[in-house]
Amino acid sequence: MEAEKQPLRLRRIGIDTHQEPVAYLRQDCHVCKSEGFSVHSRIKIATENRSIIATIQFITNQLLTNQEIGLSEAAWQLLKADEGEQVHCSHAKPAESFACVKSKLAGKSFEESSVFEVMHDICLGHYPDIQLATYLAACSGTHLSPPEVLAITKAMVNSGQRIDWNIPQVLDKHCVGGVPGNRTSPLVVAIVAAAGLTMPKTSSRAITSPAGTVDTMEVMTPVNLSLEQIRQVVEQENGCLVWGGSVSLCPADDILLRVQRALNLDSEGQMVASVLAKKIAAGSSHVLIDIPIGPTAKIKNQSAAFRLQRLLVATGEALGIEVTAMTSDGNQPIGFGIGPALEAKDVLAVLRCDPDAPIELAQRALIIAGKLLEIGSKADEGEGYRLAQKILNSGAAEKKFMAICEAQGGFTEPPVANNVYEVTASHNGIITYIDNRFIARLAHFVGAPVVKTAGLEMQVKLGDQVVSGQPLFTLHAEAKGELNYALEFLQQHPDAIRIEETWL
């Protein structure tokens, strides 16, 4: 009997491999022997109705019998099978499109047809993580030309569903990132939707930051909505704040983002393709892009920002959407909170017009919302900020935000962490430098964004005068071990917040 005709029984063994499909087998399994499978082999697992591609790992204990195959949670969700169901396993055919990726590494340009093949194979799971990483490396830096970026964007849009709102104007915004605590989207959506404009915000989870819009929003309300649920929320409230991955908008991009997060690797062209593909797939007609500039932000200087602006606008124009790109100050964190629950706390403080709310976060949200109100013809040019401020101060934005949360499944106040630790100034002086990347990494070390309550709360800004022993920021953690780990990291980087000495 052929090896692929010999079935194995499925076991759901409850291992979280994030979005990577992994299959677990005994090394003495008859299929492993006959097929010559080894660790990291790529195999096709097929039921009568469905098949997936997964990466093999071997089990050496009695967790599985040699008649069973275990699936990670990601693989189980993809296969949509039942416990104990029989499957057939065989070697997965290598993705022929990977030759295009190797050619790109060798210095050749992507053709539009080859990019479509690459994205198609990525969506089908034909690329293991090492090949996904190779693709991202080939696209890193400024290695993609404008025609290549356009081709990748088109291919990503075609990789999943596309929403049509059947109205002439659908607004959206995006920040290219690199600045912790820049949680403007919930505020902007609330203000713009309260003004009567349509703004369905679909976002990704955090890539390299301690929290994304979705990570913050799911502290307060459900974000995993179906397409029909999203439509109902938007029809009722003019806006939403949901996870785009729940409705398969640009699934190729979701797969790439998982690996990009692990690599902590940015690519100008891939960033443009990722951002615009998701906006187009979400049905946006007008998009405002915020580009923070700073020495420890993603975009380091004005020339890099200008190059990115041109690429964003030109790619959007070629694909039929209007893109407006603006620059902003990326020299320091924006809000006080860094981490999902702490950023949610900041958002609510601004919406509730709390006198202790972070002023910089409120101002940046008002600038972005004001520009969108002008684009949406709700305010004359130069008058958008004033209208946005009026909507916020009147309580209309808070009311709209709560209505959106209720429509998405209900509102919950952000939780708090079990452990906190104040980090204080070692001497008198003026705050002259704050390292955004260090602050973000420190928030990661205490558990953000996976642990929703974890992160840190800034208590100083650039230019502040401090005295020895004054709090600089407070760490929030659920586990003391994570808190101690962060403190060890902090000791190794004493200049992440620079205090120029003065004598007070």
Automatic annotation (TrEMBL):
EC code: 2.4.2.4
InterPro entries: Glycosyl_Trfase_fam3, Glycosyl_Trfase_fam3_N_dom, Glycosyl_Trfase_fam3_N_dom_sf, Nuc_phospho_transferase, PYNP-like_C_sf, PYNP_C, Pyrmidine_PPase_CS, Thym_Pase_Put
GO molecular function: 1,4-alpha-oligoglucan phosphorylase activity; thymidine phosphorylase activity
Keywords associated with the record: Glycosyltransferase, Transferase
PROSITE patterns in the record: THYMID_PHOSPHORYLASE
Catalytic activity: thymidine + phosphate = 2-deoxy-alpha-D-ribose 1-phosphate + thymine
Family matches, as Pfam families: Glycos_trans_3N, Glycos_transf_3, PYNP_C
GO CC terms in record: cytosol
Keyword Endoplasmic reticulum recorded: no
Record GO biological process: pyrimidine nucleobase metabolic process; pyrimidine nucleoside metabolic process
Keyword Chaperone assigned: no
Pyrimidine nucleoside phosphorylase C-terminal domain segment(s): 430-497
Similarity comment: Belongs to the thymidine/pyrimidine-nucleoside phosphorylase family. Type 2 subfamily.
Protein known as: Putative thymidine phosphorylase
Taxonomic path: Bacteria, Pseudomonadati, Pseudomonadota, Gammaproteobacteria, Oceanospirillales
